[in-house]
Fold this sequence. Notes:
Blueprint: H1 2-14, E1 25-36, E2 41-52, E3 58-69, E4 72-79, E5 83-85, E6 89-101, H2 104-110, E7 122-132, E8 136-146, H3 147-153
Antiparallel strand pairs: 1-2, 2-6, 3-4, 3-5, 3-7, 4-6, 7-8
Amino acid sequence: MNRLFAFALVTILFTTSCSKLKEVDVRDMKVKRFELINTTTANIHIEYLIENPSGRTITVQSADGILKKRGVNFAYATLLSADVVTPKMASINNIVFRIEINDPLSLLSMGLNVSRWDLDEFFLDGIFTLKVSGAGRKTLKYKNVPLKNIVNAL
């Protein structure tokens, strides 16, 4: 899931409409804290190092995604806290997602070791909203993005 969030964040930042924003680079990402709320819900706190050479402040206002397995909704991800990326510097930022498993029995049948899952079965749909200072708000929508391609790109 960590790679999924990295891809989403990098994609959001790359597709905004300023030339220097294409140079935004997420260098390091790690799960800082994992809070199990109940058997199907968890909060994931992710810390990442990002370099923003542009002169614009980028605010990740919202992010919602659906992870599908063989066309069936498997898990939902929602951004719990907005994040601000400061301009013209590298910074360590934190972002919090809530992950809700739609069907816990399918999770148990696949096993809890995520590295052994068949990534060809998973696809991501997502909606991301960014606010870029001086450029307004931008909403990005993605549909049926293969999870395997996202992991390989990272």
